[in-house]
Amino acid sequence: MNKERIETGKAPQLLIGACDGDLIIRGGSEPTLHVRGEYTTEETAEGYRLSGRGDLRIIVPAAAGVRVDEVSGNLIVKGLAGACEIGRVYGDAILTEAGPARLEAIHGDLTARATQSLAVGEVHGDADARRTGGLALRAVYGDCTARSVSGPVTIEEVSGNIDLRGIEGDVAIGRGHGAANVAYAKGQVTLGGVDGDIRLRGALSPGNHALAARGDIVVRWPANAPLNLVAAGRSIDNRLPLEDIVEKGGRLTARLGAGETYLTLSADGRVILKEADPDEKWEFGPEGEEFEFEAVVGGLGLENIAARIEAEVNSHLARVAQDFETRFGPEFGQRMAEKAARQAERAAERAERAGERARRKGEWRGRTPVADAPPPAAAARRTASPEEQMKILKMVETGAITPEDAGMLLEALEG
After folding, report:
1. CB neighbours of 385 closer than 8 A, spacing ≥ 6?
2. What is the band of 38 on the pLDDT scale with cuts at 50, 70, 90?
3. Among 168, 93, 104, residue whose Cα is nearest residue 133
4. 61, 142, 348, 402: which one has the fewest Cβ atoms less than 10 Å from its Cβ?
């Protein structure tokens, strides 16, 4: 294994032809290049050129520019303020606290945190970007998540689901083959064609916005935010205090207040318009995670969170248990009821621990967050018998239950 330290300037150019293993590149404070692994290197007019066999660990000045042709394993880039250009990565790619980055193709998952901007050709796994600048993706073959993005988000095609929250710039999605959730977007929103459902939460800025889905479209809109609406769908369920309503043949036009926000909805399924809670306020933590504060839960103090969660879990799972008992007999129903009790206890315990941690941690941005607690150590689980599994699979095959029902049923049997 070679280990070398090379004196460079403050912003050298690093060219990596190919890395046969994993590649880790970190930005450092010294004007030196540190390389560890089996590699060859040469200094050219363009910069320092490296090729590696096996894993490579490299530390370069933070302002360095980096270009990588190919990585056979995983790629990690951290603390690199200079421009980064990546060809193909056959494993996962992780970028943290990085400058502008361009990636041609990632055959695994993409994770980006605190990048200046990100442009990617193809992601064959999932893509998850948080606290980034502009985000441009050509194709994502898994799910796509973007939160706390300070610039525009442009995605040509996503094979899985889309979850976008806290986008400061425009949002433009060409095609989505799963469902799409958009919350608290501040720019112009255009979802050209979504095969699943679309859920939009929060008011939009003045301008023209358009959503099109083959499934349902559900909009949660603040009643005090202006809106000029045109909606078309198989059916329209309006729960907003709209004015000047004209509805005919599955098409509705209406307005809410006076303003220049225009929203066009086109769904092959239903269009559902709901009023958003005016007290609902979401903030994003330092890692782009959401925290729901006390005001959001109707003034309940942290000491009451556990009781509320326990009650809600009990209510939900009791309904599911009753449904299964009706459809599949009392034995399944009893198992689901037992499952409900265990889940409620665990949820309450997690909430109590989260509340205690929040008290100790103190206020974050002037309020006390309610964060999720890590799950308790897993207890020994019962495994569904082959006969039970076969019975459930036959129910799915005959259409008696959905795959989602089957998953919940198996979880109950193995709880």
Report:
1. none
2. confident
3. 168
4. 402
When pLDDT is cut at 50, 70 and 90, the band that residue 342 belongs to is low
- Give the position of tokens 């994993």: 22
The reported pLDDT for the residue numbered 126 is: 96
Could you give the CA distance from residue 10 to residue 192 in angstroms, rounded to a whole number?
45
What tens digit of pLDDT does each residue of 146-157 get? Answer: 999 999 999 999
Residue 27 contacts by C-beta under 8 Å, 6 or more apart in sequence? 59, 60, 61, 62, 63, 64, 78, 79, 80, 81, 82, 97
Q: Where are the domains of the chain?
A: 1-108, 138-292, 293-377, 380-415
pTM of the model: 0.67
- Give bridge partners of residue 123 from the DSSP assignment: 106, 140
Q: What does DSSP say about strands 135-140 and 110-123: parallel, antiparallel, or unpaired?
A: parallel
pLDDT tens digits for range 248-258? 888 999 999 99
Q: How far apart, in whole angstroms, are the C-alpha atoms of residue 131 and residue 229? A: 31
Q: Are strands 207-213 and 261-267 parallel, antiparallel or unpaired?
A: parallel
* Residues whose CB falls within 8 Å of the CB of residue 140, separated by 6 or more in sequence, listed in order: 122, 123, 126, 127, 155, 157, 158, 159, 160
User: For the chain, how many residues are written?
Assistant: 415
Dihedral sign of CA atoms 310, 314, 320, 324 in order: positive
